[in-house]
Amino acid sequence: MAWMLIYIMIQGKDVYAVNAYGPGYTFPGMYECFRAREMLSYDAGGQEGHFPLNVQAICIQVETEE
């Protein structure tokens, strides 16, 4: 198992969601993903893990091929 950071944006009535670190990128653990999420909140214009309106990111546990 691994963790993926999903970046979600809403523009008008459309919703967009992408892997924040690029296709297929995963984190080995939950805490690494949460740290990356907090850094992304600053890059997106928010602060201390809070995102601006219409933007959010979530860490999702995913199954990986071994």
Low-pLDDT parts are none
Q: Roughly what fraction of the amino acids lie in strands?
A: 35-45%
Radius of gyration: 12 Å
Task: Give the count of structural domains.
Answer: 1
> What can be said about the biggest beta sheet?
3 strands, antiparallel
Distance between the first and last residues' Cα: 9 Å
- The spatial strand order of the largest sheet comes to 2-1-3
**Approximate shape:** flat
* SSE pattern, N- to C-terminal: EEHE
Q: Report the count of strand segments.
A: 3
> Helix count, per DSSP?
1
Mean pLDDT: 95
Q: What kind of assembly state do the chains in view correspond to?
A: single chain
Structural class determined from secondary elements: alpha+beta
Helix content: 10-25%
Topology:
Layout: E1 2-11, E2 14-19, H1 30-43, E3 55-62
Antiparallel strand pairs: 1-2, 1-3
What does it look like?
The chain has one helix and three strands, in the order ββαβ. The protein is of the alpha+beta class and 66 residues long. It has one domain. A three-stranded antiparallel β-sheet has the order 2-1-3. The longest helix has 14 residues. The radius of gyration is 12 Å and the shape is flat. The protein starts with a strand and ends with a strand. The mean pLDDT is 95.
Question: Which properties best describe this structure?
Answer:
flat, 3 strands, 66 residues, three-stranded antiparallel beta sheet, alpha+beta
